[in-house]
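Input structure tokens:
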């Protein structure tokens, strides 16, 4: 048989549990990963994004889902982002798939957890127009900009010294 003090204690316990569950829901939703997006862009929009991040080191990974070496190396791009974002590294990926394959590229990015800026070339694929506009050679192509927004390093294919160059630019004063 419940007494009046027992009912009050029970009501207080229910209220506390309700408040606790609201608090926990807020914690869980705040810890959800950032959304992965893929936005059509051209070389001018990429340049504006690099300029917007002056004061930070910017790493740009030019890639495509049809490029085997690009997909193989992409987990390293994710690793660089996670490892150095707190030190001031900004990662941007520029995809060169056909615009009609944007969903395929976005699915790849989501599986990789690419929560940084992801662009897809407005030039509809990785042909010579796109490569000329972005000023790059064959994929994969990587670029590293210093804290002043100046292009300091670029690689076609595998970048053996990429980690060392990222660390070098992160230690420089902007």
């Amino acid at each position: 048989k419940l007494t009046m003090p027992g009912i009050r204690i029970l009501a207080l316990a229910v209220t506390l549990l309700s408040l606790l569950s609201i608090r926990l829901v807020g914690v869980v939703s705040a810890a959800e990963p950032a959304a992965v997006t893929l936005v059509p862009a051209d070389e001018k929009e990429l340049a504006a994004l690099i300029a917007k991040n002056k004061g930070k080191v910017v790493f740009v990974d030019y890639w495509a889902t049809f490029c085997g070496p690009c997909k193989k190396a992409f987990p390293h791009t994710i690793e660089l982002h996670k490892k150095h974002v707190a030190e001031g590294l900004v990662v941007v990926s520029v995809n060169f798939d056909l615009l009609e394959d944007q969903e395929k590229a976005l699915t790849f990015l989501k599986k990789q957890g690419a929560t940084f800026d992801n662009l897809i070339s407005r030039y509809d694929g990785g042909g010579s127009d796109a490569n000329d506009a972005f000023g790059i050679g064959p994929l994969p192509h990587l670029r590293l900009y210093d804290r002043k927004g100046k292009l300091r390093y670029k690689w076609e294919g595998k970048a053996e010294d990429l980690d060392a160059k990222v660390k070098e630019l992160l230690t420089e004063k902007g």
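The helical segments are 4-30, 43-52, 68-84, 102-112, 128-134, 162-171. The radius of gyration is 23 Å.
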